[in-house]
Write a structure and sequence with these properties.
Length: 555
C-alpha cells in the first residue's frame, strides 16, 4: 500500500489542518476533528446551524462544504467510520445559537447512532436540534425499504439547499422542511470500476476482473448490488438514470439538477464523457436538466467509478442551488448549455487537378501499410522511454496516408502538402508536427515540379531534415529521429545519381544503422531526456519509426 501520509493514525487531523491552511474561512476545534465556519460571536446573532459529517475518505465531503451558505461545521471520523457523539456535540456547541441546529446525516447505522445521541445530549443542554436522514441510494430499491437505503452523493444537494435556506434567515422548522423535501427529491446510483484501499486494512476490499464492474455500490469501498461486464459509458449511464427516474417517478418535462460525481479515482476526462452521455439521455427522455455539476463531490478514497444523482427541482430548490456560498468544494453555478458544434474551416480542395503520378501513389500506399503494420513494434519500443503511444500514432498516420493515396491529385508538391495536412491533424505528440513541417518544407522545395529527378528529391529531403531541426532544436547525437534521418538524407544524396531504387535503399540502410546507434546515446531531447541513463540499452523509438517508412519507400 502506497499513500501520501505521515502517521496513519494522525491522517484525519492532518487533513483538516491542511484544509484550514488553504481556507482562511475554516477553523478546526482544538480537541475534536471538527471543521467549523466563522460564526457570529454572539449566539443570538447566529442563523440555524447546519452540521454534517461522518467517516473520512469521502473528500471533499464534508469539510469542503463548510462555509457561509452551506455547512456551519463538519465532523470527521476515522476513514469510513462514524465520528463519536462527543465530537458531534462539540460541533453543535461551537456553532449553534438560540435558533438551533440541523444535523444532516447519511443513513448509516454508526452515523445515525452517534449524531442521534449528540442531538439528545444537546437538547438536554437547551439547544434546539433536529436531524434529517438522507437515504438516496436507489440501487437498494429492491433490497430494502426507502428509509433503510444508504445516504450517498445526493447528500451534497441537501447540504446546499438547506444551507441556502438557513442563510436566508429561516427558522429551524423551515430549514428542516427544506432539507427533508430535498432528501425525498434526490436519487443516486453508482458504478465502480475497481476497489479502493482503506489505510487501516492495507488491501483492496474486493477484486474485479479486467472486464468486470460493480453496479450499485456505496461510498465505503464495499461491493455493489450486482457484478457485471464492463460496458460503454453511455450504456452504464442509461442503466443508472433509468433506475433513478423510475424510482423517483420523474416525468417528462420535469426540471432536475444532475450531479456527476467521481468516486476518487476517475479522471476528469471520463467524468466529462459520462456527463455528456447523461445530458443526452435526459434530453432524449424530455427531462429538463436546468443545472448540472461534474467532479469529485463525495468520494470513496481512490476508487475508480462514478455516481449519478438527480434532484427534482421546484422554484425554491432551484433558487437555493443558485444562492451564493463560501464553501470551497461547491463549484457553481452549474449552468447547462446546448452543445454547439460549428464547422471548421477547411483547406482548399484539389478535385480539379489531374490524378497524381501512379508511382508516387504506390509509394504512399506502401508507406501507409508499413506504418500500420509497425504499430505493435513501435508501441513496445516507445514504452521503454515514453508513454507507449508512438505505435498508435503511426497506425493513425498509416491510415491517413493511405486515404490520401486513394484520392491523390496534383503534382508531388500538392500531394506532399496533403499528407502534411492530414498528419498534423491525426497524429498527436511530437511525431505529427515534425513530419508535417518536414513534408510542408519539402513540398515548397518541389513547388511547380512535375518530373522530379532524384537529385531534386535529395535537396527536398535535406530541406525537410532542416525543418525538423529548426522546429525541435535537436541535432544528431541527441537520441531522436534525427539520428536516423540525418544519415539517411546524406546516403540518399550520395546515391541519387544511381536512381531512386538505389538512393532509397541506401537511405533505409543508413537510417537502420543510425537508429541502432541510439542504443548507447544518452537522450538530450524529448520525454526520454527525463530518464537520463535509464534510457540506455534500447534504440530510440522515433528513430525506429523513421526506418519503417524509409524501408517502405525502398520497396
Amino acid at each position: 500500500m502506497k499513500k501520501l501520509l505521515d502517521r496513519p493514525q494522525d491522517t484525519v487531523r492532518d487533513m483538516l489542518l491542511g484544509l484550514a491552511g488553504l481556507n482562511p474561512g475554516l477553523r478546526v476545534l482544538a480537541d475534536e476533528d471538527v471543521a467549523i465556519a466563522a460564526v457570529p460571536d454572539r449566539p443570538e446573532d447566529r442563523p440555524v446551524a447546519l452540521i454534517s459529517g461522518g467517516g473520512s475518505g469521502h473528500e471533499p465531503a464534508h469539510a469542503g462544504y463548510v462555509g457561509a451558505g452551506m455547512l456551519s461545521a463538519a465532523v470527521a471520523g476515522p476513514v469510513f467510520t462514524s465520528p463519536s457523539a462527543d465530537a458531534v456535540l462539540a460541533a453543535i456547541r461551537a456553532v449553534a445559537g438560540p435558533r438551533g441546529a440541523l444535523l444532516i446525516v447519511k443513513n448509516y447505522t454508526g452515523d445515525r447512532l452517534n449524531f442521534g445521541l449528540a442531538a439528545e445530549l444537546a437538547r438536554a443542554e437547551g439547544i434546539p436540534v433536529e436531524l434529517v436522514l438522507v437515504a438516496d441510494d436507489v440501487s437498494l430499491r429492491n433490497t430494502v425499504g426507502r428509509s433503510d437505503r444508504r445516504g450517498v452523493a445526493g447528500t451534497v444537494f441537501v447540504h446546499k439547499i438547506a444551507g441556502a435556506t438557513a442563510a436566508s434567515g429561516a427558522s429551524l422548522d423551515e430549514v428542516v422542511a427544506a432539507a427533508r423535501a430535498t432528501a425525498d427529491a434526490v436519487g443516486t446510483m453508482a458504478v465502480g470500476l475497481g476497489p479502493c484501499i482503506v489505510p487501516a486494512a492495507g488491501k483492496p476490499g474486493f477484486e474485479l476482473g479486467e472486464d468486470e464492474i460493480e453496479l450499485g455500490l456505496g461510498i465505503h469501498g464495499e461491493r455493489g448490488v450486482s457484478r457485471g461486464p464492463m460496458q460503454p459509458a453511455a450504456e452504464l449511464v442509461a442503466t443508472i438514470l433509468s433506475t433513478i427516474v423510475e424510482d423517483l417517478g420523474i416525468k417528462a418535462d420535469e426540471r432536475v439538477a444532475l450531479l456527476v460525481n467521481g468516486l476518487g479515482g476517475t479522471p476528469p476526462m471520463e467524468l466529462a464523457v459520462v456527463a455528456g452521455d447523461a445530458l443526452d439521455w435526459l434530453r432524449e427522455h424530455s427531462i429538463d436538466v436546468v443545472r448540472a455539476w461534474s467532479g469529485n463531490y463525495m468520494t470513496a478514497l481512490e476508487m475508480p467509478g462514478v455516481s449519478l444523482t438527480l434532484c427534482r427541482l421546484d422554484d425554491a430548490r432551484l433558487a437555493a442551488l443558485d444562492a451564493a456560498t463560501e464553501a470551497g468544494a461547491w463549484v457553481g453555478p452549474g449552468a447547462v448549455a446546448e452543445v454547439q458544434v460549428i464547422p471548421a474551416p477547411h483547406a482548399e480542395t484539389h478535385d480539379d487537378l489531374p490524378e497524381a503520378d501512379p508511382a508516387l501513389v504506390a509509394a504512399l500506399s506502401r508507406v501507409g501499410a508499413a506504418c500500420r503494420a509497425a504499430e505493435g513494434e513501435l508501441a513496445e519500443a516507445d514504452s521503454v522511454s515514453g508513454d507507449g503511444d508512438l505505435g498508435a500514432s503511426y497506425a493513425r498516420a498509416g491510415e491517413a496516408i493511405e486515404d490520401v493515396a486513394r484520392g491523390a491529385r496534383g503534382g508531388p508538391d500538392v500531394v506532399l502538402q496533403s499528407v502534411a495536412s492530414v498528419l498534423r491533424r491525426v497524429v498527436g505528440g511530437s511525431s505529427g508536427p515534425f513530419y508535417a513541417v518536414a513534408l510542408a518544407r519539402a513540398a515548397r522545395t518541389l513547388q511547380g515540379e512535375t518530373a522530379i529527378a532524384p537529385e531534386t528529391a535529395a535537396k527536398a529531403f535535406q530541406e525537410a531534415l532542416q525543418a525538423i531541426t529548426d522546429l525541435g532544436g535537436a541535432k544528431p547525437g541527441d537520441r531522436t529521429m534525427l539520428d536516423a534521418l540525418h544519415p539517411a538524407a546524406e546516403a540518399f544524396a550520395a546515391n541519387a545519381s544511381k536512381g531512386y531504387a538505389a538512393a532509397w535503399a541506401a537511405a533505409a540502410a543508413a537510417a537502420a544503422r543510425g537508429a541502432q546507434d541510439t542504443t548507447s546515446m544518452r537522450p538530450k531531447r524529448g520525454r526520454a531526456a527525463y530518464l537520463g541513463e535509464r534510457a540506455l540499452g534500447a534504440p530510440d523509438a522515433g528513430a525506429l519509426g523513421t526506418v519503417v517508412w524509409l524501408r517502405a519507400l525502398a520497396g
